[in-house]
Amino acid sequence: MTRPFVIRKYQEASKLVKPNSSILDVGCEDGFLRNFIKPKNYVGIDVEKENIEKLKKEGVKVYPLDLNNYKSIPIKQKFDYIFFLDVLEHVINPAKVIQDFKKLLNKDGKIIVSLPNDYHILNKLRFLLNRNISEFPFWEHGHLHTFPINEGKKFLEEQNLRIIKMKYLAPEEPRFFPPSLRKFLANLLPNNFARIVIYELSLN
After folding, report:
1. What is the pTM of this model?
2. Which of 49, 58, 118, 163 is the Cys-Cys partner for 146 at CB 3.0 to 4.6 Å?
3. Helix or strand run (H / E) with residue 24
4. How many Å apart are CA 38 and CA 193, to the nearest integer?
5. Residues 88, 196, 106, 22, CA torsion sign
6. What is the DSSP letter of 58?
């Protein structure tokens, strides 16, 4: 069962997309993004064989690609939107990935990126209490990079991308805080209370 927070992330990211657009979903997993967007053209990229086989059975155009070990991108067409939802923190060289893939963006196209804020207040408390700051600390696809919000913003701008919009998503916890309060705090003090930042970016 997909967690409410993940659903909310896809919902918020999908609101940035205009109807009848062409979309490249990098790190698409099982193509969950399609539940929220009805694009003119959808293409996925993933490394997991199971995801690729599932999408092909559904008639989805999908390409196998290991973002940590590739020589070229097996796609020639250009897209209105390229998505990197919780992807860049998992790759060895996120700058190279951005530079390579942004060549596939239409002139007025947008890149949609989500980066986790691993420095939110709950993780700071976990750190002080000597607790794991990630749910699966030895997961093979764990975070290779951590982006405090200011560093994440700086990193994306260094890739010659212009930030159009930033959306701050509050975590599901602490549950004794009502959702409206968590949302308010995430927007007021994102460094401490935002769990993920969604960026809408364009080429400079």
Report:
1. 0.92
2. 118
3. strand 22-26
4. 32
5. positive
6. T
Q: 29-37: which pairs have CB atoms within 8 A and are 24 or more residues apart?
A: 30/54, 30/55, 31/55, 31/58, 31/60, 31/62, 32/2, 32/6, 33/83, 33/85, 34/60, 35/10, 36/10, 36/11
Q: What is the pLDDT of residue 56?
A: 96
Domains in the chain, start-ordered, CATH in brackets? 4-203 (3.40.50.150)
Q: Interhelix angle for 149-158 vs 94-101, to 10°?
A: 40
Mean pLDDT by 10 residues, the chain (204 residues): 83 95 96 91 96 96 96 94 96 96 96 93 83 67 82 96 97 86 94 95 94
Q: What is the pLDDT of residue 143?
A: 78
